[in-house]
Amino acid sequence: MVSPPNQPSSGEGATKQLCSWINRLSLDDVPEQVKTRAKYLILDGLCCALVGAHLPWVEKATKAVFAMEPAGDCLVWGYDKKVGALPAALINSTEIQSFEMDDWHALAPLHSNSILLPAIFAAARQRKANGSAPLGGKSFLLATITGYEIGPRVGLCLYGSHMLTRGWHSGTTFGHAASAGAVSKLLGLEKDSIEDALGIACTQACGLMSAQFGSDVKRMQHGFASRNGLFAALMAEGGYTGIKNVFEEPYGGYLAVFGQGSGKEPPYLVDELTKGLGQTWQSDFIRVKSHASMAGTHGTIDTIEALQKKYGDKLSDLKNITSIEIEMSEAAFKHGGWKAHRPLTALGAQMSCAYVAAVQLVDGQVTPHEFHQDLLDRDIIWELVNKTECFHTPQLGEKYEQRVTVTVANGDSITETLRAPRDVDPGLSNEDILDKFRRYTSEVIDDQRRDMIEKLVLGLEDIEDICALEDLLAGPTLNPIA
Question: From CA 72, how far away is CA 64, in angstroms rounded?
Fold first, then answer.
């Protein structure tokens, strides 16, 4: 019996099943709503890149990379520069991930657009520069959807957010295979070569979550996955062989190694790699941010906002607050519940539940503007941060559920519990994403350029050469916090 084209083959291990599915997948196999949602997700990724291109830490990265890399054929978005495919993927990914505004997967945390879009664009650009026929929007869309499927599935094999609890930067760890698989699909590799690409990619996978405590490199780590996955696919295209059966190999295989010490039984779930392929679409679980901060802080922000709406009179005098308690799940606590100390970089501020709680109380919003260098060290913010304690409360079973209790000088306390931030449930709609794109890009590029990007992304299937879209990402952009 032959498996349907959108189903994995039987009689193969998990790695080969996944590779067979990637090889056979066509755009006709993808439901219309999945294709439509993917276009809006892509639009959000490009929004984040345009906003991030000239942030100070991105400019620092591009300056260093330009100094060590020769000119090439691939665009660096927001600049009038071209470099090779690999450094282009690295820098452009850093732009998307530069301000904690980008997408994340609700069950297996990773920032898919920062991994996929830079690698796919760079592969298409290099292919055209080498004399091959240009790749169109349909190929680009299919490759992106393929990548949206792979990364989260790898993460689900390792219990998703549990990797954050263990200290791994989950997206960087899950993302190498996503980049390699997406580029392999774009280039039309056969299933054996796709398996080689995944094997080359997975042996490079890693990522330390300690990067979140103020380092520049946190902004770049998804770029390592984008670049390394691109490298893996290009090497496989050239006939270079990779690790076979890389996910299920018992000695030194990806899941065996990253599952060690998980504390779970079993240590990993290999079946999650292929379960529901072609039926359950992982893009349904990709969420888009409305706040400019790490996803685990969004429950804090929304809970504070709910308190402000209900008890505005009690919170009108912020100096009257004596304590703020934030209770959360283990993953959110370890990721965002750490004790913040003055002074703090923009990155550290965006990763701290205590800091963003103070920002929401003071400014009533958490947008890029609040992380301007001149605003990071405000006394009123730090007075509130120092009155804040974060706790892991096991009874809050849902990983996004949070409870905030604010106590004021007369001893009164007000409490609010939210099961999930609105970015998770119900999640931003396509219309919300479009509004975000228009609002934020209007601050960094002109309206004509913004409108053309929007038109081409939402009409991807009609583009004959995907480089025409990427051309609009080159050239100058403004710094939104200058």
Answer: 16
What would the mean pLDDT of 33-40 be, rounded to a whole number? 98
Q: Give the pLDDT confidence of 461-473 residue by residue, as tens digits.
A: 999 999 999 999 9
Domain extent at residue 346: 295-420
pLDDT score recorded for residue 11: 65
117 and 246 share one domain: yes
User: Do residue 279 and residue 144 come from a single domain?
Assistant: yes
Establish if 156 belongs to a structural domain.
yes
Nearest CA-CA partner of 368 in 455, 287, 478: 478
Look up residue 366 and give its two tokens: 């958490």
| In 174-320, beta strands by DSSP E | 286-287
Confirm whether pTM is higher than 0.90.
yes
Mean pLDDT rounded to a whole number for the chain: 95
How far apart CA 479 and CA 298 sit, in angstroms, is 24
Exposed e or buried b per residue across 78-108, where buried means at least 16 C-beta atoms within 10 angstroms of its C-beta: bbebbbbbbbbbbbbbbbbbbbbbbbbbbeb
117 and 192: one domain? yes
Same domain, 211 and 69: yes
Cα 473 to chain centroid distance, Å, stands at: 19
Q: Where are the alpha helices (DSSP H) in 133-190?
A: 137-157, 162-165, 170-187
How many independent structural domains does the chain possess? 2
∠ at Cα 329 (325, 333), nearest 5°? 65
Report pLDDT digits (tens) over 306-363.
999 999 999 999 999 999 999 999 888 988 999 999 999 999 999 999 999 999 999 9
How many percent of the chain have pLDDT more than 90? Answer: 93
Looking at the structure, tell me whether residues 82 and 211 fall in a common domain: yes
Rounded Cα distance between 242 and 196, Å, is: 4
Question: CA of 248: how far to CAs of 210, 279, 293, in Å?
Answer: 28, 22, 35
Share of the chain above pLDDT 70, in %: 98
What is 346-390 written as a DSSP string?
HHHHHT-HHHHHHHHHHHS---GGGG-GGGTT-HHHHHHHTTEEE
Structure tokens, 76: 């660096």
CATH number for position 365: 3.30.1330.120
Rounded Cα–Cα distance for residues 372 and 158 (Å): 37
Residue 231 has what pLDDT?
98
C-alpha–C-alpha distance, residues 211 and 209, integer Å = 5
- The answer to whether residues 446 and 407 belong to one domain is no
